[in-house]
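Problem: given the chain below (261 residues), write out its structure.
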Amino acid sequence: MNDSLVIAGKAYSSRLLVGTGKYKDFDETSRAIAASGAEIITVAIRRSNIGQNPGEPNLLDILPPERYTILPNTAGCYSADEAVRTLRLARELLDGHDLVKLEVLGDAETLFPNMPETLKAAETLVKDGFKVMAYCADDPIQAKMLEEIGCCAIMPLASLIGSGMGILNPWNLRLIIDQAQVPVLVDAGVGTASDAAIAMELGCDGVLMNTAIAKAQDPVLMASAMKKGVEAGREAFLAGRMPRKTYAASPSSPTGGMIGR
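Solution.
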């Protein structure tokens, strides 16, 4: 079955996107990402060296762009101007690469998105030729606004970044999914494989995560579990679940022809 995730015109076989932060070293990073099966790898430009710091270990040495799609992100930015400057730098470092992840944060404690600044930055970046995947609140109105600006993917949070609380508001996610004409990917809040499966069962096109893998007791094993969770959730969504019934049992085996009946 050909069931590719298509973002900005490019098809990917994996619907799991992963980050590169919080691992103990580059070896663990490399092994976990390989186990995840992810093809799109997001990199925090303000926290990771991808060539802007000569003489320091370069993340691209273990994550070669010819093997992975590198997704520069604006983690740590608190204004539209900061985010735009950061992604313009990333484009220079990556030889004109234009697929980016935009996140503009509201405060350092919750890392909740600042939506007015996110919308402002998205508008500037789209006009500047970037293909923008935008981290946002689970607000259907603002998600639609990002799509209308021209973002190529909408990435609502499931719960706060790094919280591991899972999907706290499935109803809002469903509203965003139902109205969107671009891919919708859960970004932030996933804690374990069942959270990823639930996101996919709701109809999300993919899931992006970092902390849930990097801070697991065994990151490589958790990466493998997340891969399976995303795949199982997608298959369940495509299969279509049975109707929910709260009023009567329905036996799995037919009762007609049973002895005594």
